[in-house]
Design goal:
heterodimer, A: alpha/beta, four-stranded antiparallel sheet, 24% strand, B: 218 residues, mainly alpha, MetI-like fold, 80% helix
């Protein structure tokens, strides 16, 4: 096979509903003269678990941040669950709209640095948005938060604040906090990169359980190749602001078609 | 001039009355400054067209002119335009507004010190702006600046002596009045200084303790 750096058309996964829940259409993002995303076309099917791999600076995280409306695309159309999240023509000044705010509620995000609210207990972190965004009553929110904190193995830490918890525990609270909003799409931005090595496993276990037991769509940027291989329906290799290759994990990891994917995997799997 | 103990003791009740006025000015002035400063800091951060630049200019203006000039203007010039209050009220408003400009800067540094990830988490949870400010950002921002606000309170306590110039009968004005009527300045002024110190020294120790307690959590 001829080595190529050209982006390939991405195959739609077989056996999944044809309407994508996430759709990027010709999305670009520039930081000054640096093009972080280059006219990206990218789709995720409902319920699909997708891992995005690639070298740092390849635009992986930018995709998640655009979906969470933490970053504005320079150009392009982004739809989530049939609703327009971004529709930007080049040079246009974009303002936050009601539609954007409503669409955003379908998405949750787990951050690399956890971003828990440090002055609030685990319980308070989890019930904050259900009460003040979804309008849930306090008793119901607490009950559900307790279930979620149990689910992530932190039933005994409900009244602890983040500074009293380890990084792994904090990240599991952050996952519970995101789940409490019942998102259709859950984004993971390098969820274990800020953790001490011995704490990575407990967080990956929680994510693995979610991947196996929910029909939530999951989009994860990660450097944990073995984990991506294990839980993903599809793996997308990013380089230089574009999707270089996309396919089932077995193909990407065992038989990558692109030279760029091969060199990247050789480098990261070497150790 | 030799220290006259009997005279000193005799003027203490009057000086304590003055001290009480000084304390009242400081507490009311601090409340006004803390509330107004927070309001200014939030307005500037929200970057509202016209309003935010106006607030920024106001803060620069207040910080760039002497408190004494502001007090004179408020007490002697504004009444010509129909705005007139008694000396005490004018004093509280002038010193409160003056300090609000400094406190706005303190709050601003506190707000800037809250990590970007906190705003991002609030966005990711779709929290409304009022909730993001009220429950997430300000509690963390204010926590880190409590000691700085405390320092300004102590500074205001001492600065309030300036208001004697606009006839507010606080501690300094009282000491001065006793001096000019008895021709003995040593005792009232010394006692006034000691009374200022008696409050400001323990207060600054307290602020030091607050500094340790309210260290940033990140």
């Amino acid at each position: 096979m001829r080595p190529s750096t050209e982006p390939q058309p991405l195959a739609t996964p077989v056996g999944l509903a044809p309407d994508p829940i996430i759709r990027f259409q010709n999305v670009s993002k520039n930081w000054g003269s640096n093009q972080v995303l280059k006219s990206l076309n990218f789709e995720v099917a409902p319920g699909e678990k997708v891992s995005i791999i690639g070298p740092s600076g390849s635009g992986k995280t930018t995709i998640l941040r655009i979906l969470m409306t933490l970053e504005t695309p320079s150009e392009g159309l982004v739809k989530v669950d049939g609703d327009v999240l971004w529709d930007v023509t080049a040079g246009q000044k974009v303002r936050e709209t009601r539609q954007m705010r409503e669409t955003r509620r379908k998405i949750g995000m787990v951050f690399q640095q956890f971003n828990l609210f440090p002055h609030m207990t685990a319980m308070e972190n989890v019930i904050e948005a259900p009460i003040h965004v979804l309008g849930m009553n306090k008793a119901e929110a607490r009950e559900r938060a307790a279930e979620l904190l149990n689910l992530v193995g932190l039933g005994k830490h409900m009244n602890h604040t983040p500074p009293q918890m380890s990084g792994g525990q904090q990240q599991r609270v952050a996952i519970a906090r995101a789940l409490a909003m019942r998102p259709k799409v859950l984004l993971f931005d390098e969820p274990t990169s800020a953790l001490d090595p011995e704490l990575i496993g407990e967080v990956l276990n929680v994510i693995r359980n979610l991947a196996h037991t929910t029909d939530m769509t999951m989009l994860m940027v990660t450097h944990e190749m073995r984990f991506a291989e294990e839980i993903s329906d599809r793996v997308v290799m990013f380089d230089n602001g574009a999707a270089v290759e996309s396919g089932p994990p077995a193909q990407i990891f065992k038989d990558p078609q692109q030279e760029r994917t091969r060199t990247f995997l050789r480098a990261v799997l070497q150790h | 001039m030799i220290w006259d103990n009997n005279f000193a003791v005799s003027v203490i009740p009057l000086l304590l009355e003055g001290l009480w006025v000084t304390v009242k000015i400081t507490l009311l002035g601090t409340m006004l400054a803390a509330a107004l400063g927070l309001f200014f800091a939030i307005l500037r951060r929200l970057a509202i067209p016209v309003l935010s630049p106006v607030v920024s200019f106001f803060v620069v203006f207040v910080r760039g002119t002497p408190l004494l000039v502001q007090a004179y203007c408020a007490f002697f010039v504004l009444p010509a335009y129909g705005i007139s209050f008694d000396a005490f009220t004018t004093g509280v408003v002038v010193i409160g507004v003056n300090y609000s400009a400094y406190m706005a800067e303190v709050y601003r540094s506190g707000i800037q010190g809250v990590p970007k990830g906190q705003w991002e988490a609030a966005t990711a949870l779709s929290l409304p702006g009022t909730r993001t400010w009220g429950r997430i950002i300000l509690p963390q921002a204010i926590r880190t600046v409590v000691p700085m606000l405390g320092n300004y309170l102590i500074q205001m306590f001492k600065d309030s002596a300036v208001l004697s110039a606009i006839t507010v009968v606080e501690l300094m004005a009282t000491a001065q009045a006793i001096g000019s009527s008895s021709f003995r300045y040593l005792e009232p002024l010394t006692l006034a200084a000691l009374l200022f110190l008696a409050i400001s020294y323990p207060a600054s120790r307290l602020v030091n303790r607050l500094e340790r307690r309210y260290a940033p959590q990140h």
